[in-house]
Write a structure and sequence with these properties.
Blueprint: H1 2-26, H2 35-48, E1 69-72, E2 82-85, E3 88-91, E4 101-107, E5 111-116, H3 119-127, E6 134-140
Antiparallel strand pairs: 1-2, 2-3, 4-5, 4-6
Length: 146
């Protein structure tokens, strides 16, 4: 896959240079530039087209007085769930703080995570959550076993 990506980049650069050459010939543009200048130009053009990065990797910036979050549940028992709030990854397989079943993050000015393997303590825990607390839940492996 790395080789395929590198090959695609070489093809894109070659097409860009060929297009630039044809345009300069058609419009009779005279340039005193060496290959180094052309690569610098290509670098800045590629950098200028890079999309901006927003909190938690979402597609656009959140309005004022809103917060950014992104959640994804796990994939079978291979990829763990991920919860990110305001560019802080609260739980993920990489952080190694997720478990099978339902994983929760409570956002109330303080961040925490919790996972349960039995339904009774889970229900009791849900009853203790204060009003105004944001509850984010993501499953891993099989959230419906209990």
């Amino acid at each position: 896959s790395l080789l395929t990506g590198a090959a695609k980049l070489v093809v894109v650069i070659a097409i860009f240079l060929l297009t630039f050459y044809v345009i300069s010939q058609v419009f009779e543009i005279k340039m005193d530039a060496n290959l180094g200048h052309i690569f610098v130009l290509v670098y800045f053009l590629l950098k200028a087209t890079k999309p901006p990065r927003y909190k938690c990797g979402i597609s656009k910036a959140c309005p004022e007085k809103h917060f950014a979050f992104k959640m994804s549940s796990g994939a079978a028992n291979v990829v763990g769930p991920k919860i990110c709030v305001e560019d802080n990854v609260l739980m993920s397989g990489v952080k190694n703080n997720v478990g099978r079943g339902i994983n929760m993050a409570l956002v109330n000015g303080n961040f925490m995570f919790s996972f349960f393997s039995d339904v009774a303590p889970f229900i009791e825990f849900l009853k203790t959550i204060q009003d105004g607390t944001i509850v984010l839940m993501a499953t891993y492996d099989d959230g419906a076993t209990k």
